[in-house]
Amino acid sequence: MKTKFLKLSLLALFIFTASCSSDDDKNEIPAVVTTKVSNLEAPQTGGQGQPVGGQFTKFSFSQNKVVTDNNWDIAFRGTTIIVNGGAKIGITDEPERTGTGAVSIVSGTFASVTTFPAAATFAQDGNATYAFPTSGANAWYDYDSTTHIISAKAGKVFVVKTHDGKYAKVELLSYYKDAPAAPTATSVSRFYTFNFAYQANSTTTF
């Protein structure tokens, strides 16, 4: 009788442990994966003293692809990057802002950015204002006026609040097709390569 009782107790303990383990697995937050996007084309018309225009290439972090609807997070045209939040900047052919997107710029390596910046550090696009600056200390690129080469600025990580309130961190790597280590005057421009990590869950870490 005691042996039977012991066996039943052990069975109950096993079922309880397995159930807890199963619940823990369900509640486990999936790891954030870093994804590399290569050769995202960002053509434009005009330039070289002529009015700049052309449609923006809109990108969704959650879908990891170029989209044509309003579910975009950031968009590219030439050296201009915009976010789906705020108001129109006032440039030709820019898409409507239908989301709540914003950007916080963090100095450091991509791997070192593991928590979301403070809400007050996020900025949106607005009248003549870019959340991804194109000039100044926080510009995403450096321009060499002698070689006319555009180089993604090292040590800048852009934490993006997406159009629907999630977060992604972005590291811009290259503005040239196939991301050459040392671009030259013959390198084909307006092709972005970047890393991103998208946090789809309601946590504050990457």
Automatic annotation (TrEMBL):
- Keyword Signal attributed: yes
Show which residues constitute the signal peptide. 1-23
Keyword terms, alphabetized: Signal
Q: Which superkingdom does the taxonomy of this entry point to?
A: Bacteria
Q: What is this protein called?
A: HmuY protein
Annotated source species: Flavobacterium crocinum
| Taxonomic path | Bacteria, Pseudomonadati, Bacteroidota, Flavobacteriia, Flavobacteriales
